[in-house]
Amino acid sequence: MTPAEMESRIVRYGDLKPCKTAFIDAHTPGSDQKENFTIIGGGVSESPDQHVHIRDTPGFNIGAAGQPPKCRNSLHSHRTAEVFFVLKGRWRFFWGRWGTAGEVVLEEGDIFNIPTGIFRGFENIGTDYGMIMAILGGDDAGGGVLWAPQVIEDAADHGLVLGENGRLYDTKKGEALPDGVGPMPLLSQEVLDRMPEPTTADVVPNYVARYWDMVALADRQPAKVIGPDAMLRDRPGFEVELWTRTSRSDAMEASSQHEVLMPMRGHWRVTWDGGSTVLNPGDTMAIPPETPRSIAPSMTGEASLYVIRGTGDDAGPTMPL
Fold first, then answer.
1. Cα 175 from chain centroid?
2. Domain 212-310 in this protein, CATH class
3. Please, are residues 84 and 122 in contact by the beta-carbon 8 Å criterion?
4. Burial of 25 (0-12, 13-18, 19+ CB in 10 A)
5. Which long-range CB contacts under 8 A does 33-39 form with residues at least 24 apart?
6. Using an 8 Å Cβ cutoff, are 268 and 305 in contact?
7. What share of the chain is helix, strand, coil (3-state, %, to 5)?
8. C-alpha separations of 268 from 119, 161, 216 in Å
């Protein structure tokens, strides 16, 4: 593969194109400053304005959310995995019907495999613009987002209507639901009553991995972060590892599965038959199956890298506690 061909499979952090109208809460005060990024796959954006960097999916999607301080993402749910790691900033994640069942604060490098079937939201509680990177299960990312009813009702007060076709319509711009398309129905009380309300004590030990714990495990070999025998036990259609300077291999190796590289700290040189490149924190690189490559830090200092691989498993609900 030529350098140009491989470069087309890399999305540089500085080249990310945000969408500020991706979701139904885009006009709701407190959520109207967030930016959504769709890096690999179609993602779950409800706006035709969303830019997709790489459309081919490896069995999962990669996205990101950028938010200034005190900006929050409203309560929603997914049918397949939603995994975040904090690239920049300090973030509070909360969950439950009203966002009060539990919460956890994540620092840079921490990862959260949020259980499917519960409403979740998050906010930047740091002092600067923050960025969290996301892995979504399935080629179609679970078919979209399920919103808490109050989010849809609040959005209507600020001019945004979500159609049953999954698209947003901005009444402030004179848009209306097309003929034959009704509004997205609110979840029934029966459905809401069936949604679990796990506590912080239920969730954090089983679904959150702290960065420095992962670094300690990655002293001699990559730390298995998400997988059937990993720190966070799950089979969401992909597995996640954390590599460090002392656990990476300089050997030219190939994976039988799609592989996505996402540096967390430091600079990483990726070499393949045909060229090489350096990845920086926030960059995303998609390596096709059976492509021999070597991956190693290119400079001294702290270096860590998330490696995500497809597994061929169905992108189903998160494994139960």
1. 30
2. mainly beta
3. yes
4. buried
5. 33/67, 33/68, 33/71, 34/65, 34/66, 34/67, 34/71, 34/72, 34/73, 35/65, 35/66, 35/67, 36/63, 36/64, 36/65, 37/63, 37/64, 37/65, 37/66, 38/63, 39/11, 39/63, 39/64, 39/284
6. yes
7. 15, 35, 50
8. 36, 44, 19
Overall residue count recorded for the chain in this entry: 321
Phi, psi of 216 (to 5 degrees): -65, -40
Specify the fold of 12-208: Jelly Rolls (2.60.120)
Number of Cβ atoms within 10 Å of the Cβ of 1 = 16
- What is the distance between the alpha carbons of residues 104 and 91, in angstroms, rounded to a whole number? 8
The sheet with strand 208-209 has its strands ordered as: 52-54, 35-40, 60-67, 130-137, 82-88, 111-114, 208-209
- How much is the pTM? 0.94
Q: Are 135 and 39 in contact (CB under 8 A)?
A: no
Give residues with Cβ within 8 angstroms of 232, minimum separation 6.
Answer: 111, 113, 206, 207, 208, 209, 225, 226
**Parallel, antiparallel, or unpaired for β 168-170 and 259-265?**
unpaired
Do 119 and 75 contact (CB within 8 A), yes or no?
yes
**Amino acid identity of 308?**
I
| Cα(251)–Cα(260) distance, integer angstroms | 18
Q: Which residues of the chain form CATH 2.60.120.10? A: 12-208, 212-310
- Each of the 321 residues of the chain gets a pLDDT tens digit; together they read 888 999 999 999 999 999 999 999 999 999 999 999 999 998 888 888 899 999 988 999 999 999 999 999 999 999 999 999 999 999 999 999 999 999 999 999 999 999 999 999 999 999 999 999 999 999 887 667 899 999 999 999 999 999 999 899 999 999 999 999 999 999 999 999 999 999 999 999 999 999 999 999 999 999 999 999 999 999 999 999 999 999 887 889 999 999 999 999 999 999 999 999 999 999 999 999 999 999 999 988 999 999 999 998 888 888 775
> What phi and psi values does residue 156 have, to the nearest 5 degrees?
-60, -35
